[in-house]
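job 3f2a | input accepted
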Amino acid sequence: MMVLVLMVPFACYFGLDWILGPPMQIFSSSEYNSIIAVHAVSVAALIALVGMLFANILSTKNL
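job 3f2a | predicted structure (63 res):
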C-alpha cells in the first residue's frame, strides 16, 4: 500500500512529461539537463514528503 502512495508523484511526473510534449522554449543540451535535474530533485522531495505524511498517519492509527 505504501509503495502505491509513494509512486503517485513519480507516475504523475512521467505521465505529464509524456502528455505535455516538447518545451515551448528551445534550450541547449546542458540547460535541458539542468532543468531535468531540478525536476528530479523536486519529485524526490515530493515522494519523501508524501511518504513521511503517510507514515505519520499510519502511526497515529491503531491497526
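job 3f2a | The radius of gyration is 16 Å.
job 3f2a | closed
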